[in-house]
Amino acid sequence: MTHNEAFAVVAKPGDNLVDLSTPRPIIDEDRLAANIARIQSYMDAHHLNFRPHIKTHKIPALARAQAAAGAKGINCQKITEAEVFASAGFEDILITFNILGTEKLARLAALHERISALKVVADSAVTVDGLAAHFAARKPLTVLVECDTGGGRCGVQTPAEAAALAERIAKVPSLVFGGLLTYPKPGGAADVQRFATETLALLRSVGIDCPVVSNGGTPSLFDAHLVTAATEHRAGTYIYNDRSMVRAGHCTEDDCAMHVLATVVSRPTADRAVIDAGSKALTSDLLGFSDFGTIAGYPQAVITGLSEEHGVIDLSRCTGKRPEIGEKIRIIPNHTCVVSNLFDTMVFHRNGVVTRVEEVAARGLVW
Amino acid sequence: MTHNEAFAVVAKPGDNLVDLSTPRPIIDEDRLAANIARIQSYMDAHHLNFRPHIKTHKIPALARAQAAAGAKGINCQKITEAEVFASAGFEDILITFNILGTEKLARLAALHERISALKVVADSAVTVDGLAAHFAARKPLTVLVECDTGGGRCGVQTPAEAAALAERIAKVPSLVFGGLLTYPKPGGAADVQRFATETLALLRSVGIDCPVVSNGGTPSLFDAHLVTAATEHRAGTYIYNDRSMVRAGHCTEDDCAMHVLATVVSRPTADRAVIDAGSKALTSDLLGFSDFGTIAGYPQAVITGLSEEHGVIDLSRCTGKRPEIGEKIRIIPNHTCVVSNLFDTMVFHRNGVVTRVEEVAARGLVW
Fold it and tell me: Domain D-serine dehydratase-like spans what residues (chains A, B) (predicted)?
């Protein structure tokens, strides 16, 4: 790690962005603060608890800013991410992943001893039974039932299955049923409301209290108030925003706090530029796009292909100026969360001047 | 970095693969050794110098194994990668990237003082002039001219441009013209041969010696001998191989040394499995495929989608057994190089028993 640590000094406060070596993701402090404030205001206005997902930034200082604005707890995806945030002082951590296997369950149990409000999810009896065997009645673990309301990933498929799994959890002395949770499809508010309402009725009929209904996602975040059954909302991407969130209508390009700085390293032909940002900087996430980001100031330029260290840009539709060799450009990436995962440090700026450099403390933690 | 360092102990020699926590890429020692030997034998048989590209493994111990087999020098893509390998004792390092900008040129000059045979490429007068200003006649830097022979990325477009840039390099006391280099399109042997032959004739006509013609790539590696003008070949992916190399006809699935171990964490429906390997483990590189890897033992299962921590598998075409919750599966990734870049450590095994764990020393180095 010694070599990588040397790169923690990629910039220092007061540096000008134009002097940074590329490729380098940068975060606009004012847009960041505005994104945090705007979404927390919306949640406050609709009396929804807000639980930010740290996957987008992976930086404790940003989670503290979200908490200071009014967020209640955080959402992690993996045990190892939760360990990083527990070490940074967070007590209310929800891990939205089915945790299986002896080693992981043992680590989860150790984490549970360290913090006051750890919660996980389950969508099967196998997961519930594994959890049941690794926790104790003196400090039971809170488990929410994950529901597939149309997202097509994990989750029980019907309210009847959800209620049955809740009953299974509620019967185990070492576990506490913590509620329902879903990661819906974009625009799926009505499906979430219907699934939650039906499940809540089933739970009432068997006398099981459901303290939390946790909804999630940034793309349709401003529909969160339509799900009146929900008590909390989880979202991550909103803090930086990206090209896919602009397309989803969640924000505008001016709300995108992250850009990836890159340098034009070759202009082999009049219509082709090659930059030093490839899939190791932008990732190959397309998310339905056919190209790899929006270039500020060059709306007609198209990033048509990425190899690991090169991005190839088609300039043939550019009617005005074209970027020259050595020129630095700014790219709004398709997907911001995955860019965070590629860099050990993140550079923040205000009006082009570096304000701070944060370690991406939970980078690369996959289990 | 403290937290990530804890994960260096992901496994130890003698551990059984079935006990490893997932997701986790693993390398088969016997396939690795066979891949190194097979390609070096081919190069030896055709009297081609072989310069492995370290981008695939990013591990000095593997580059030493390649050198022990007969490789001459290594290929890096970025200065920071070259620094890691220089620190590991490598002296003959070719960086196949246009290096621009004061900070990078200063670091390149510092690296040049440390090793005996640093080489870089250039495809424009801007790059050549930048290099010229940062090196000295007492220890000139060797610069190869990068040629676009159909690959469509960097490189001068014609033999005339190549010869003109070679002349520009040859005139500068602080630089030495080192030869021609190309990263061709797959199946592009005839184009490389034609471009090189024409350029060599032009160089002869102006009295410039061309000591090296460097060809590259794994997909069409076994065509390397058709390019009789070439003196060396560069390749990276061959050492691990991957699904895209199987499709290209370079190898079979039995030559793929890397698998990604993953665990089924959810079976929401009869036709859907969800695994704990998403884009943070497999990457979203499609390379022309419409799905995200081949699952050993489940040829009819299709990894249809990835989010960061989840892979969604369509089982609807499976006529036999279907993977169950908790089951560990092995995936041949679409692209092996990008998987290496996501993990701090790489686990090696023989017949399912861990042999060693290597630090991926040059992981995440993007400039």
Answer: 257-350
Type of residue numbered A81? E
For residue A325, list chain B residues with Cβ-Cβ distance below 8 A.
Answer: 100, 124, 126-127
Residue A309 sits in a domain whose CATH number is 2.40.37.20
Per-residue pLDDT averaged across B126-149, rounded?
Answer: 98
Q: In order along chain A (367 residues), what is the average pLDDT of each group of 10 residues?
A: 49 94 97 98 98 98 98 97 98 98 96 98 98 98 98 98 98 98 96 98 98 96 98 98 97 98 98 98 96 97 97 97 97 98 96 97 93
Residue A313 lies in a domain: yes
| Residues of chain B positioned with their CB less than 8 A from the CB of A55 | 308-309
- Over the stretch A254-284, which tens digit does the pLDDT of each residue have? 999 999 999 999 999 999 999 999 999 999 9
Judgement on whether residues B290 and B326 belong to the same structural domain of the protein: yes
Please check whether residues A13 and A84 belong to one and the same domain. Answer: no
Identify whether residues A225 and A271 lie together within a single domain.
no
| Same-domain status, A352 and A256 | yes
Strand ranges (E), chain B: 24-28, 49-52, 74-76, 92-98, 117-122, 141-147, 175-182, 213-216, 232-235, 258-269, 272-275, 294-295, 302-306, 311-314, 328-332, 345-350, 353-359
Count of domains in chain A?
A: 2
Residues of A in contact with B280 (CB under 8 A): 338, 341, 364, 366
Residues A79 and A181 in one domain: yes
* Residue A78 near residue A103, CB atoms below 8 Å: no
CB contact under 8 Å between A154 and B266, yes or no, is: yes
B67/B95 same-domain check: yes
User: How does the average pLDDT of chain A come out, rounded?
Assistant: 96
Nearest to A366 among B1, B153, B281 (CB): B281
Q: Where are the alpha helices (DSSP H) in chain B?
A: 2-6, 29-45, 60-69, 79-87, 102-114, 125-134, 159-170, 189-205, 243-247, 279-282, 336-340
* pLDDT tier at B308, thresholds 50, 70, 90: very high
Inter-chain residue contact B325 with A367, CB threshold 8 Å: no
Share of chain B above pLDDT 90, in %: 97
Q: Which domain holds residue B136?
A: 30-240
Over residues B154-168, the pLDDT tens digits come to 999 999 999 999 999
Cα B57 vs. chain centroid, distance in angstroms?
7
- Look up the ipTM and state it: 0.96
| B130 plus B22 within the same structural domain | no
- The answer as to whether A160 is a domain residue is yes
Residues of chain A found within 8 Å of residue B344, distances taken between Cβ atoms: 1, 364
Q: Report yes or no: A135 and A178 within 8 Å, Cβ to Cβ.
A: no
Give me the residue from B123, B148, B279 closest to A338, CB to CB. B279
